[in-house]
Design a protein that fits this description.
The protein is of the alpha+beta class and about 80 residues long. It is built from one helix and four strands, in the order E-E-E-E-H.
Length: about 80
């Protein structure tokens, strides 16, 4: 699988959890999500496909680090 085939969605989630993440898709299939959870103060990776190629995982991590703020947002 080539990185050029990957569609990226950056989305916030404030309904079930509180934070922002990067989602990677191949066609309509979600491959992985990296999420910054501001409530739990954790960054989490979820893989939705078994045996996901390392180049795709590395690509997702690079995107997460370059496109999303690293610091957690405090509730007001």
């Amino acid at each position: 699988m080539d990185v050029s085939e990957i569609r990226v969605v950056i989305a916030s989630d404030v309904s079930d959890r509180d934070g922002i993440g990067v989602e990677l898709y191949h066609g309509d299939e979600m491959l992985m999500e990296i999420f910054r959870d501001d409530t739990k103060r954790e960054r989490e990776v979820t893989l939705y496909r078994k045996d996901l190629p390392l180049n795709i995982v590395e690509y997702g991590i690079r995107l997460f680090k370059s496109e999303l703020p690293w610091d957690y947002i405090e509730d007001e």
